[in-house]
Each structure stands twice: as structure tokens, then as C-alpha cells.
Amino acid sequence: MGSSQSMSEEVRELVGKTGFSSDQIEQLHRRFKQLSGNQPTIRKENFNNIPDLELNPIRSKIIRAFFDNRNLRKAPSGLADEINFEDFLTIMSYFRPIETNVGEEQLEHCRKEKLRFLFHMYDSDSDGRITLEEYRNVVEELLSGNPHIEKESARSIADGAMMEAASVCVGQMQPDQVYEGITFDDFLKIWQGIDIETKMHVRFLNMETIALCH
Amino acid sequence: MFLLLPFNSLIVNLLGISLTVLFTLLLVFIIVPAIFGVSFGIRKLYMKTLLKIFAWATLRMQRGAKEKNHQLYKPYTNGIIAKDPTSLEEEIKEIRKSGSNKALDTPEFELSDIFYFCRKGMETIMDDEVTKRFSAEELESWNLLSRTNYNFQYISLRLTVLWGLGVLIRYCFLLPLRIALAFTGVSLLVVGTTMVGYLPNGRFKEFMSKHVHLMCYRICVRALTAIITYHDRENRPRNGGICVANHTSPIDVIILASDGYYAMVGQIHGGLMGVIQRAMVKACPHVWFERSEVKDRHLVAERLTEHVQDKSKLPILIFPEGTCINNTSVMMFKKGSFEIGATVYPVAIKYDPQFGDAFWNSSKYGMVTYLLRMMTSWAIVCSVWYLPPMTREANEDAVHFANRVKSAIARQGGLVDLLWDGGLKREKVKDTFKEEQQKLYSKMIVGNHEDRSRS
Questions:
Q1: Mind telling me which residue stretches traverse the membrane in this protein (chain B) (predicted)?
Q2: Which residues of chain B have pLDDT under 50?
């Protein structure tokens, strides 16, 4: 605030690529510098400086999501070692609120992108399917905060939920049929009708109107 | 009148006289324009001068800090994102409700549960409470109030002198002046409205009442050195309507009432407030409720409807949020005022925090402390937007209408539109994540799982 009004070339590019406004990019850039300790890239260790994140049961999955090549749109699998500001913004853009005046197609596209982000969180080996093992892994992590729950109960919960998902996707299965896993299309089917647009976004405060008060 | 000392008597006399003249002049310059509703533009000039001084002070600090290699800290802001103060249970229930067709009483682990944790994680990465307090980078303009600045270290003699001068001016000159003005304003209001109350009902009484009210509110506005910019004044509320605005501080009432003639709604208090309220109602019909009546929603709605239907009565001023919000967001509007069926005139009020933070955190500061803080700030700068009137549509329910009005206000004032109840401010909001949250979540799932296996 107090710097010149004109946007630099880079900021303009970022606005175009990620869809954030120049103000939001400025704010996020400050945050990026804070997290990276003024370095040009962030590594996994930098996320350890956020105390509130320590209490989140799926923190390792969230942090991993930042370095996931699929989310960064660089490769179909694997993890990056470090990310720069543009990558940071790319991940953040999955949580941008969807504008209300976009067309049906655009809305569908945004929804898919958000769901794909979640899918990648579950599908840790990047094979395009959420297997029973991966599902169990997520449930165990989510329930990891409670020391009284044994692994067995966590497992059985996951198994029950997986069966539920299977029945939605494949219908009734034969007793010896093996359900290989939830594909992305099945995943989309499960989410049909759930309004994730409002659940999966972070709202930015509008700093601009403060200047209008004079 | 003046204490004549054997020595220095001349100096004391001169001092006494000059101070009295100064104060009288100032009072005249302020009260007379207030009576006639004109402005000499003194406050705008004051504001411009202050801005220049702040800019200089900030530059000086940055330069000084660079020379000495100090870390500069940015003053605490409210953060860059709006976090919902919802609890784990509520949100998960909501997500599940909107999705599955299964009955709510047998929930189990669902894929959707991950949403809540994922989003919370993202929010903390974007902006977390602890690390955002200090960020070593460009300093926003410092407004010479040490209460808003963590940087106050000795940077240069000039700056400290300036700050000291600021303190002197604010506490020794502005504060007594403002208290005198406030006192004048309030007493004129009480006396004026009581006197108007003795007049016979008629157009003259209304005329006098309107002008007494306006005059006293204008004096109070000057008592706070409030610099207000009104936008779109052609949309100002008319008789038989309800004026609805977002609420940041008790000053909102004074700000709106100094530009228009409204009927107030509220609970009768004891003490000074009660005296003022009782006097005001003699001059024109405000709607005051006894403490017991406030709980009875039907009675309240009835009286408001009655007032609104009488076209000769003034527009009612209501703050539907029910409590003061910190002026970055608009919380849920209580639907009572929207059920009445009158035309609603929304008003958006936005304060500029640069000159003084107007937000009243009633759980932190009492009313007197708050007013003192206000009166020792430089000024209160705000913008008021009068939005075009809205009416409830044929098949719209009150809640939907309330949300529509709320969005319009939030959009105009640049505030974030939040869906949650302002009452959460007083209750202890659950912290985003503690061990209990995870236990709660797992209890939710396992508890239900056990129920199922038992049945």
C-alpha cells in the first residue's frame, strides 16, 4: 500500500494465470516471503513454522498437496522438492471462491478442479484410483488425534465406508468381485449434488474500499 | 474571577484571558455551524494536515530503521482472510446434510469430512494468528498513536518530539474541548427536547423537534471530530420506512442521526441514557421498550408495525446485527425487522482505521473507556452510503430478504458477507484446532459406529 498503482508485468501475468486480483497477489506474496524466510522458494520444512497447522490431523497430506506434481500441473506423478511463488499461487487458486457470474461450463470446470485436488489428496500413489489401503490411511490420519481409538476400529470404519462408496459407484457386487478402487469419475459421482463451491474456498477481505473513505 | 497572586499576576491574568477567549472562539466556531448545519471545512483541512504529518512520520521511521538496522513491524491488522467461527460439528453436519440421502442419525465416516480439515489447514497456511502479528516488511503509515504501533522505539529525536506533541495536543487540548462539546450537545438535547415537548402538537412542534435533534447530533459529531462523507443522499430514508445499517460502534447512531431525522428503537436504560431517552420521546415518538418487553418478539413486532404504518411517523433506525462487529464483515441480520413488511432503506457505514479504530469490543472495553479512546484519537473518518430502497418480494421469506439486504450492504461497504450470528462474539468461540476437536470428530464417528454395531 503506498506503492505505485500500476501493476508490474509479472503481477499481470500472475493475475491472468491464477485468477487472483493484484491486491490478493500482493498479500499472498507477503505471506510467501514470511513462510519462506525471504527465500525465493519454499520447502516442506518451512511449513513447520505454523503452529496452528500442527494441530491439524491431516497436515502431512495438506503439506504434501503443495508439492504434488499433479496439483502443480507439472507431471502426472511425483513430488517436487521446492516450490516458487507461482506454484504457491497455483495451489492457492484451488481455494479461490468461484465468481457468481460465470457460466455453467466454467462452474463445472472449477468444481472439477477442486474435486481433483481432493482426489489427489486421497490417491497418494498417483495411480488414478483410491484403493482400500489409501482410504484406510486417510481415516487413520483423521482419527489419529484420539489415542483411545485402536487401529482396528479405524480400519473397520474405513472398510465400511469403502463398501458404501463401492455400492454407489458399481452397484451391487458379486461376493467374489474385487473392488479395485474409486476412480476419479466415481469420485465425481459420489459428490453429485453436494454444494462444495461454498465449502471449499477461503474468503479474502476486501482491502480496497478503505481508500475510498477520504 | 481570576486568582490574583502577588507576583506573576499579570502573566496569570493574560494566560487566563487568552485561554478563555480561545475556548469561546472555538466553541463558537463549532456550535454555530452545527446549529445551522453548515461547515467551515475546518475538519477536512485538519484531516489533510494530519495525513501529511503521518506520511512524514512513516518515512522518517523507515529511514531511521534502515540506518539502525532495526526490524520494522507492521501494525496488527485483521488478517487477509475471513475465517468462519463455525464449529467442527456444525460444519460437518451441514456438509453431510447437503449431500447424502441417508438419515442424519446414522452418520459414519464420509469422504466429505475431509473438507473441513482441508479448508482449515489452508486457512492457517494463508494467514495464521500467531505469525501474522509481526511481519518484517513495508510499514503502513503510522498515525502517531502508540496504541496502534508496535514499532515505538526511539528512532529519532524529531519523531519522539512529534509523538510527544501529539500526545499533548490530544490529551490536553482536544480532549477537554471534545468533552465540553459533548456535554453541551447532550444537555442541549435533553433540555431542548423537553422544552419542545411542552409545545402543542402540530407542524411547529415537528419543525422544532427536528431541528433540535439535528443540531444536537451535529454538535456530538463535532465532539468526536468525525469527518463523514455521505454518498447518494437522494436515497435517504423516508417516513414509513425502516433504515437498516451495519453496526460497528455506538457512534453509528450519531453519525446517521446527524444527517437525517429518525425514530430510534431500543431498550430503556437507567442512568444518563435513560434521562436522554425519556427526554427525546417527549419531542417525537421514538420506540423504547422496557427490559421485559424486549424478550417478547410479538410485542416488539407489533409496536414496530404500528409505528411504520403511520405515515406521519419517522423512519425507524435499526441495526439488525444486534451487536458491534469489527467493520471488516457483516454478520447475520436478525430477521425480525424484515418481517414487518415496510420498505427497507439499507445504509452501509465504513470506518477508516487510519485515524482511529472505531470498533467497540464490548467484552473488552466498557462504554466509558471506549468513549475516552474515541475522544483521544485524532479523528473518526468514515463513509456512509445510502443504498436504494428494497422491498420484500411476493414469495420471499424474511430470512432470504434479510440476506439480500445484507449482501447489498456488504458489497457497497467492501465488507465480507458472513452467514454467522454476531452473538458468537460474546460466547467463547472454539479455537480452530485443539486436541478436543480431533477427539470430538473421532467420537462422532466411532460413537455412532458403536451404536450401530450394538443395535
A1: 12-42, 155-173, 179-200
A2: 1, 73-78, 100-107, 130-139, 150, 419-434, 448-455
Find the helix packing angle between A85-92 and A59-67, rounded to 10°. Answer: 120
Helix (H, G, I), strand (E, B) or coil at B419: coil
Contacts of B212 (CB under 8 A, 6+ apart): B188, B189, B192, B193, B196, B283
List strand residue ranges (DSSP E) for B314-359, in order: 316-318, 329-330, 343-352
What is the reported pTM? 0.56
Q: What is the pLDDT of residues A95-119, one digit of tens each?
A: 887 776 777 888 888 888 888 888 8
Q: By the 8 A CB rule, do B124 and A50 touch?
A: yes
Q: Per the structure block, which three cell numbers stand in for A190?
A: 459420489
Q: What is d(CA B255, CA B225) in angstroms, rounded to the nearest whole number?
A: 11
User: Quick check: helix, strand or coil at residue B290?
Assistant: coil
Contact B130 A52 (CB under 8 A): yes
Among B335, B316, B353, B339, which residue's Cα sits nearest to residue B392? B339
Spatial neighbors of B42 by CB under 8 A, at least 6 apart, are: B29
Closest CA to B217 of B257, B172, B267, B184: B257
Give the integer Cα–Cα distance in Å for B336 and B314.
19
Taking CA atoms, what residue in A is nearest to B415?
A206
Would you call B432 and A52 a contact, using CB atoms and an 8 Å cutoff?
Answer: yes
Q: Count of CB atoms within 10 A of residue B330's CB?
A: 26
> Which long-range CB contacts under 8 A does B446-450 form with residues at least 24 apart?
B446/A143, B446/A146, B446/A149, B446/A153, B446/A157, B448/B106, B448/B107, B448/B108, B449/A153, B449/A156, B449/A157, B449/A160, B449/B108
Q: What is the pLDDT of residue B347?
A: 92
Which chain B residue has the Cα nearest residue A136?
A: B109
Confidence grade of residue A1 (pLDDT, cut at 50, 70, 90): very low
Q: Which residues of A59-74 are buried (b: 16+ CB within 10 A; e: fewer)?
A: bebbbbbbbbebbbee
- Chain B CB contacts of A146 below 8 Å: 438-439, 442-443, 446
Residue ranges of domains in chain B: 163-424
Cell of B340: 414487518
* Residues B98, A47: C-beta atoms closer than 8 Å: no
Query: Which residues are paired to B124 by β-bridges?
Result: none
Q: Which of B80, B407, B433 to mutate to test the interface with A (most CBs of A within 10 A)?
A: B80
**How many residue contacts between A and B have a Cβ separation below 8 Å?**
185
Q: How far is CA A63 from the centre of its chain?
A: 10
A97–chain B Cβ distance below 8 A for any pair: no
Residue B378 is given by DSSP the state: S
Summarised one tens digit per residue, pLDDT across range A132-174 is 888 888 888 877 766 666 777 778 877 887 777 777 766 666 6
A194: closest chain B residue by CA? B99
User: Where do we find the cell 471449499?
Assistant: A200
Placement of cell 472562539 in the chain: B25
Residue A211's pLDDT band (cuts 50, 70, 90): very low
Contact assignment for B438 to A143 by CB distance below 8 Å: yes
**DSSP letter assigned to residue A65:** H
CB–CB contact A205 B78 (8 Å) = yes
**Minimal CA–CA distance to A118: which of A202, A19, A196, A20?**
A196
Q: Identify which of B81, B115, B438 has the shortest CB distance to residue A203.
A: B81
E strands, chain A, in order = 42-43, 82-83, 129-130, 182-183, 203-204
Whether A59 and B121 lie within 8 Å, measured CB to CB: yes
